[in-house]
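The pair is quoted verbatim below.
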Amino acid sequence: MTYVSKLTGINFVETATGSSAQVHFANANINGSNTTGLTSSKYSYSYMGDQTVTKFAAQSFVYLDNKEWAGMERQPERRHPGL
């Protein structure tokens, strides 16, 4: 996570359980030899009658290919596509 924080400028903090995390990282053999990674996000919110947001929850999932692109994914650098 330190390396990802350095690349992005975002201070990530590891959580004890996945259910309390907002960003999830995973390695996977992604279908398609031209795909280095995929992301997916979801969110939900609630608001009052005056449009004041009372609850907001967001989660993002980052999947990095660990087969065709395994070498690059082990040592990602800003110059590579997608980073």
Notes: Strands lie at 23-28, 37-47, 53-65. The longest strand covers residues 53-65.
